[in-house]
Write a structure and sequence with these properties.
There is one protein chain. The chain is mostly helical. It has one domain (8-70). Helix content is 72%, strand content 0%. It is built from three helices and no strands. The protein has helices at residues 8-21, 25-50, 55-70. The longest helix is centred in the middle third of the chain and has 26 residues, at 25-50. The protein is elongated, with a radius of gyration of 21 Å.
Amino acid sequence: MQAMMIDNEFSATVNEIARELNISQHAILKQAIEDYVKKIKKHQALLAFAGILQENEADELLVTIQQSRVNKNIELNL
């Protein structure tokens, strides 16, 4: 496996996060990579699903999603 070069700014960011969270730099990088892989797999699954829809079905689904995000009635008991 080839070594990866990390610039000073990236290294400083990881160090700062490690210090703030009191965990190792290795744990931070491992978790970041695992989260990224989950995100990519989720996105790929969505794209695979989108590929089976007809154009009008995809448009209808998109409108439904957008409306459900916008038209939410939230009741706050303050």
